[in-house]
Amino acid sequence: MASAADASGGWRSVLPAGVRPYTEAAPLASLFLGISSGFPYAMIGATLTTRLKQDGIDKATITAFTLVFLAYNFKFLWAWVMDGVRLPLLGRLGQRVSWMLVTGVLVIAAVVNLALADPSASVGSVVTAAILVGLAGASFDIVIDAYRIEILEPRQLGVGSGMSQYGWRIGSAGAGALALVVAARSDWHTAYLACAALALPAMLTALLYGEPQRHKRVSSKPGFGNAAAAVWKPFVEFFERKGAWLVLLFILLHKIGDTLANLTFRLLFDDLRFSNDEIALYDVGVGFWAYLIGIFIGGILYAQLGMKRSVLISLILMAVSNFSFALLAMSGHSNIGMAGAIGFENIASGIGGVCVVAYFSALCDLRFTAAQYALISAAASIVGRFLTGTTAGALIEAIGYVNFYLLTTAAALPGIILFWFMMRAGLIDQSIGTAGVEGSGDVRAEHPQEETGKPLQSGS
């Protein structure tokens, strides 16, 4: 489907056909949304892990901090607020725009609070500050994801997911690198304060782009009953679909191994005695470019093979990437080994970031985008994050890094097998929501039986 600019001979018509979709307004907006989405994750993820390790905190306590990410996993509990509650005064800017501004301010405040906490003086204060960043970041993510899905047309979901992943990596890697460099030359307090400004791209994008045209309110009528519908209808609608429980099981299982591995990399690097500069160069630098390459490959796979086969390939690659860290653990301090492991892992993650995120985005009903995508994205890593926070540190101490990463490779197999079964059973096509349906922008929330449209092509 060509854009209006292409059809009218506009400036996009002189670009290569494969590049044109990336220059459209919605995918470009997705890039800036992704930047702001990625940085809070880095603040309480790899960056906080390095900060705590350098302050002499033990491994079991450090891995327990990954439980802070559970805020992202339980965000579906309050995501309905962003769908059903209109903010006073700011609400005139639109449901999505107003919530983008409020949650963005909350993220900035939470990161500043974490900057002022001192792990060496009180671990408890850091725990509280990290939880606040997790809650604010998760709320910011709810709005960012809903905004992204609703500004993208079904034909743009793959490209938009890729641009969002580009932005996410710029935000997370940029924040991680900035924090490491500033901390090495000043202190961690200053490093965190510098990173707080990365909430601004999403806030400015929402103000400039405006309210998504595809956004559909649960109901245009006021009242407690209609407000309450925003809480339960998203879940009812999703679980009424054929095979919905299997789809949810896949979402829960598919990323266990990847999450377990990713949240422990900095522990491995520190124990292998990589310096901050080496981590910044290889983990952040090489990883950044490898991820961009992976997103590009993912876009090609998605376009050429369709949704289903591209997702299956990405799941297999992500499982194999964990094995590369077992090899790194065996080889010891090796810059080549680190670059190879980080490079392969990020290429695989980039491919998955396009293909899997596009599928998850297409699962949403446009009336409940915030709540449903919050449920999907939260479920995607909850098991892996819980296992990391409760057992990863102890497992590493008990069986060593090599066996740990072999275990994470094996943990990815159930998700691969289940997705293959869902493909064979035809459940992938049947699980698509109105966000993945052509012509669904005219759907009326009060009359879902009038919805019409053509399902997004998912490939064989």
Please describe the topology of this protein:
Elements: H1 4-7, H2 25-44, H3 46-54, H4 59-64, H5 70-73, H6 76-84, H7 95-116, H8 123-151, H9 157-185, H10 188-195, H11 200-209, H12 224-239, H13 244-253, H14 256-262, H15 265-271, H16 276-331, H17 335-362, H18 369-379, H19 382-411, H20 413-425, H21 427-430, E1 437-438, E2 454-455
Written account of the structure:
The protein has 460 residues and is an all-alpha fold. The relative contact order is 0.14. The C terminus is likely disordered. The longest helix has 56 residues. Helices cover 72% and strands 1% of the residues. It has a single domain, classed as Up-down Bundle (Growth Hormone, Chain: A). It has a two-stranded antiparallel ribbon with strand order 1-2.
**Tally of extended strands?**
2
CATH topology (level 3) name: Growth Hormone, Chain: A
Q: Compute the gyration radius: what is it?
A: 21 Å
Low-confidence blocks of residues: 442-460
Distance between the termini: 20 Å
**What would CATH call the class?**
Mainly Alpha
Give short descriptive properties of this protein:
460 residues, mainly alpha, Growth Hormone, Chain: A, two-stranded antiparallel sheet, globular, disordered C terminus
Task: Give a quick precis of the structure.
This protein is mainly alpha-helical and 460 residues long. It has helices spanning 4-7, 25-44, 46-54, 59-64, 70-73, 76-84, 95-116, 123-151, 157-185, 188-195, 200-209, 224-239, 244-253, 256-262, 265-271, 276-331, 335-362, 369-379, 382-411, 413-425, 427-430; strands at 437-438, 454-455.
